[in-house]
Amino acid sequence: MKVLIPSALHSYTGGARAEADGATLAEALADLERRYPGIRFRMIDEQNRIRRHIRFFADGTQVFDLGQALDPAGELIIVQALSGG
C-alpha cells in the first residue's frame, strides 16, 4: 500500500511517500520498521499503543486499532499533530 509520511518522519524515509505491506495496521507498521528502522517507535509507544499525537487514516477513515484490516491496494496516511504555544 501507499503510505503518506508526515514531514517530522521524513528523516527515516527520505521523503513524503513510502510503501508498506501488511493485512493490518500493525503489520504495515512492522513492514515500515523493517524498511526504515526506528520509525515505528515514533508512532507506537512501549505499551504497543498509538501515540497521542499520531493519527492514522486508511482510505480516508481514521484507524484507532492496530488490528484494523487494511486494503493492500489502498492508502495509509500518517498525521502527526502539532503542539506548542
From TrEMBL:
SUPFAM superfamilies: MoaD/ThiS (SSF54285). InterPro entries: Beta-grasp_dom_sf, Mopterin_synth/thiamin_S_b, Sulfur_Carrier/Prot_Modifier. PANTHER family: SULFUR CARRIER PROTEIN CYSO, SULFUR CARRIER PROTEIN SLR0821-RELATED. This is MoaD/ThiS family protein. It comes from Zoogloea dura. The lineage of its organism: Bacteria, Pseudomonadati, Pseudomonadota, Betaproteobacteria, Rhodocyclales.
